[in-house]
Amino acid sequence: TLDTSIVADSEIITYVIVAVILVLIVLMASLDSYVVPFLLLGNIGLAILYNMGSNIFLGQISYITKAIAAVLQLGVTTDFSIFLYHKYLHLILLIRVILVSHHRFL
Predict the structure, then answer these.
(1) Helix, strand, coil % (nearest 5) of the chain?
(2) Distances (CA, A) of 11 to 18, 23, 65, 66
(3) Phi, psi of 59, rounded to the nearest 5 degrees
(4) Burial class (CB in 10 A: 0-12, 13-18, 19+), 63
(5) Which DSSP symbol is given to 32?
(6) Rounded to two decimals, what is the model's pTM?
(7) What percent of the chain has a predicted confidence (pLDDT) above 70?
């Protein structure tokens, strides 16, 4: 298991880089802004760093967990980030419609 642990540690960065590039492509295709994908990736990246940093307080973790945690968290949170962003845009549009209709009514 020591050999597997060393291989996993050396390949984590490659997995994360490939995953970030693929997620960036998905975000660019699904969002209408060029800035928002980088903001979402920045937020997700900080959450992943926070998650990895919490392992210092919890002690040792399995090399398998360390190898897949960042990529798995990136994939799961990307879908939720896209959903939240679209919901935010919908609510902004709804508020504008309400304000315009309220202004016309007065």
Answers:
(1) 90, 0, 10
(2) 11, 18, 13, 11
(3) 95, -155
(4) middle
(5) S
(6) 0.72
(7) 91
Amino acid at 52: M
Predicted pLDDT at 101: 86
HSE toward the beta carbon, residue 43, CA cutoff 13 A: 12
Q: Do the Cβ atoms of 27 and 82 come closer than 8 Å?
A: yes
| Pair of tokens at residue 97 | 């419609």
Q: Quote the pLDDT of residue 35.
A: 92
Which amino acid appears at position 60 of this protein? Q
- Look-up: residue for tokens 């962003």? 85
**What residue type is assigned to position 27 of the chain?**
L
**How is residue 58 written in tokens?**
């919890």
Name which of 81, 92, 6, 83 is nearest 38 in CA terms: 81
